[in-house]
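help with this record:
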Amino acid sequence: MTLQLRGKSLPVVGRARMYVCGITPYDTTHLGHGATFVWIDVAARVLEAGGVTVDLCRNVTDVDDDILEQARKRGVDYRVLGAEQTFRFEEDMRALHCRRPTFEPRSRDFIEEVVALTRGLLAVGAAYEREGNVFFKGSAVEPHLGDLTRDEAIVLAAERGGRPDDPLKDDPLDVPLWQKSMPDEPAWASPWGDGRPGWHAECSAMAMSLLGTSIDVHGGGKDLAFPHHAYESAQSELLTGVAPFARAWMHVGTVFYEGEKMSKSLGNLVYVADLVERWDPAAIRLLLIDRPWYEDWAYEEGLLTAASDRLERLWSQAGKASAGGAPLRRLGGLLGLLWPPGTEASGHADPKGGVSGRAGSRRRRFGPRTGA
């Protein structure tokens, strides 16, 4: 089949490899996370509806600067924080009816692969070692900057934790493949001394280890396009000689709230778990896909009211449609993406593309729940 992604045709034969950058497990799961992972779930289901087998990899970044800083602030072991938050995330994904991916790698389980990646990039002259750190040469990322200028990339790198002013670097755009650990941080043995992996290297190592040297669809939030995905691509392509690293990208639009981007750093988060307490998850899922996947949008609660009303009308039409007709099949396919088989709502798409269940016998309201 051929998948259309923002006007680009992506022919796929038999099997598709999808990778989506998962969570850093703290302050999960906010609505921006939810939008990304629901859209990836929809894309995988569309491919499967076209007869394609999908291998989906969704990682957990359980070792990086951010989670170590949060664990330090909260006075807990980073592994305990990661396990607790990953459990909450998986519960939220179940509530939104996102299927479990084929692979769910954790960064700290792929240390050897990061070391191998780092060795390889040193061998081809794309990296250098300094005082127990190994840096990837930023000049290699410049072809992956898209519309960004070099100066704009440096500013963005500073905003997103890249530390371009690190005096150990030859170039502000250099990034760590391997970094020396602080005394209170986890550390693993390496040829360059005890340390831990760099963020971009983690995803390169996990993706190539589990899906191979090239990916059909790579997903993540729009804010990951630079620096994360640019470096991930540059590192992988230089190591293997295979380009492009990703045949197509799904950079899901940013969610705004109260006039600002919804983000952990700002703290203006709307949590999926809180919404599920008051609204039907089917309505939340509809809200998240009620626009082109790449568009930014601003969340307000009135949008959930509108999504609930729209979902009610869809189920009502499903109950009125005559069995077996083309309109019913189309409606069944739509409802199957919104709320696939096996959910608590009684109306659902059956495996043959029809709709079973009656709109008037739902087990759950589609509007806000009372008593919460």
